[in-house]
């Protein structure tokens, strides 16, 4: 019951193409990509409320927000470098 009915297919974490659930557990599901063959596990805290495949297009507003967040993160990394 890990991902439930909306998590039978998800985007592959390696190539972004369609991955199919090959094993459903109580908290973790195992997936195999239908394109590159990569196998991976997803831990589901709760089953998703919407289908995970196909991936929904992000709106222009979301794209702007993601771009701003990325620029802010890059700026912070540049201005506050990690010291080792």
Explain the overall architecture:
By secondary structure, this protein is α+β, with helices and mostly antiparallel strands. It has one domain (4-79). It has one helix and four strands. The chain has one helix spanning 60-79, and strands spanning 9-11, 18-24, 28-33, 39-43. It has a four-stranded antiparallel beta sheet, with no helix packed on it. The longest helix is centred in the last third of the chain and has 20 residues, at 60-79. The protein is globular, with a radius of gyration of 17 Å. It starts with 8 loop residues before the first strand and ends in a 5-residue tail after the last helix. The relative contact order is 0.19. The model is unreliable at 62-84 (pLDDT under 50).
Characteristic terms for this protein:
1 helix, disordered C terminus, four-stranded antiparallel sheet, alpha+beta, 24% helix, 84 residues, single chain, globular
Radius of gyration: 17 Å
Determine the fraction of residues in helical runs and give it as a percent range: 10-25%
Structural class: alpha+beta
Low-confidence stretches: 62-84
What general form does the structure show? globular
Extended strand count = 4
Number of helices: 1
In short:
With 84 residues, the chain is α+β, with helices and mostly antiparallel strands. It has 1 helix and 4 strands, in the order ββββα. β1 (9-11) and β2 form a beta hairpin.
């Amino acid at each position: 019951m890990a991902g439930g009915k909306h998590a039978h297919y998800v985007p592959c974490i390696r190539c972004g193409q369609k991955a199919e659930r090959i094993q459903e557990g109580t908290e973790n599901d195992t997936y195999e990509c239908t394109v590159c063959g990569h196998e991976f596990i997803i831990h589901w805290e709760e089953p998703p409320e919407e289908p995970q495949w196909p991936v929904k297009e992000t709106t222009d507003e979301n794209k702007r927000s993601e771009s701003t967040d990325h620029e802010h993160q890059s700026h912070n990394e540049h201005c506050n470098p990690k010291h080792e």
